[in-house]
Write a structure and sequence with these properties.
It is built from five helices and 14 strands. The protein is an alpha/beta fold and 256 residues long. It has one domain: 4-Layer Sandwich (Nitrilase/N-carbamoyl-D-aminoacid amidohydrolase). Strands 1, 2, 3, 4, 5, 10, 11 and 14 form an eight-stranded mixed beta sheet that branches. A six-stranded mixed beta sheet has the order 6-7-8-9-12-13, with helices on one face. A hairpin with a 5-residue loop joins strand 10 and strand 11. The radius of gyration is 17 Å and the shape is globular. The protein starts with a strand and ends in a 19-residue tail after the last strand.
């Protein structure tokens, strides 16, 4: 299975512009034989820790703007994971939707949101793709080992981690290396492949993201890492066979 992690500039309150970029990127991914493409956390509307902003930006899955965006993916074979603020009634979730052939085939909601006003998700679905199964953890979820463990126990061989590390400059630098290390710990802990997709750039408040997109093998080896401070795409061909099913191949690696 061929996977790709897209590291892209963060856009804010620009769903149509994001749709243009997604359509372009997914057309390219399809031409390259990409089976699964990962995009950053809250990519569609732009991330924020402010409840009022998140609530204003949130879209329900049947919102015409979101339906129009998803429709633009109908002609490509590539499955995409795309982050968004999702509205469910009065509740707001930090979610990632799985899009295939112009349809939303599933959604994961962040179990441990740091965003003010976001409701924690409680479900940990996995999806089949070719001979593989994949699941999603979003950003800070990886700080809680059980979130990835639940996916591994259900047979996931790949954990996809949309992230958005646009932070105040001193925090952005502080979290850049630990973000990669967190992916390595997750891989060793679960025996799964792990890939992350981050934003780059800055916002009007001076916050910035270095870009911490990476792909890590089940032994914790970083097999692909995005260039910092720039847009990038990581492409990797996973083995024909997923890792052995089951969780915690090597318990001693959990503490490394």
């Amino acid at each position: 299975m061929r996977i790709a992690a897209f590291q892209r500039l963060a856009l804010f309150d620009a769903v149509d512009a994001v749709g243009d970029v997604l359509a372009r990127d997914l057309a390219w991914a399809d031409s390259q034989g990409i089976d699964l493409a990962l995009f950053p956390e809250c990519y569609i509307q732009g991330h924020s820790y402010n409840e009022a902003i998140a609530r204003r930006r949130a879209l329900s899955l049947d919102d015409p703007a979101l339906i129009a965006l998803v429709d633009r993916c109908a002609s490509v074979r590539t499955t995409a994971i795309i982050g968004l603020f999702e509205r469910r009634g009065e509740a707001i979730y930090n979610s990632a939707m799985v899009v295939k052939a112009g349809r939303i085939v599933g959604v994961y909601a962040k179990a441990h949101p740091l965003e003010s006003g976001c409701t924690p998700g409680t479900d940990f679905p996995i999806w089949p793709l070719d001979d593989w199964r994949f699941g999603i953890n979003i950003c800070a979820d990886l700080r809680y080992p059980y979130t990835a463990s639940r996916l591994a126990r259900q047979g996931a061989g790949l954990i996809c981690n949309p992230i958005n590390l646009m932070l105040r400059p001193h925090k952005a630098e502080m979290w850049h290396k630990p973000a990669i290390a967190g992916l390595q710990i997750c891989a060793r802990h679960t025996g799964c492949w792990v890939m992350a997709s981050d934003v780059v750039g800055s916002n009007e408040d001076g916050w910035l993201s270095y870009g911490s997109s990476a792909i890590v093998d089940p032994n914790g080896v970083v097999v692909a890492k995005a260039k910092p401070y720039s847009e990038d795409v990581l492409v990797f061909d996973l083995p024909d066979q997923p890792p052995e099913r089951g969780f915690g191949r090597k318990a001693s690696l959990i503490a490394t």
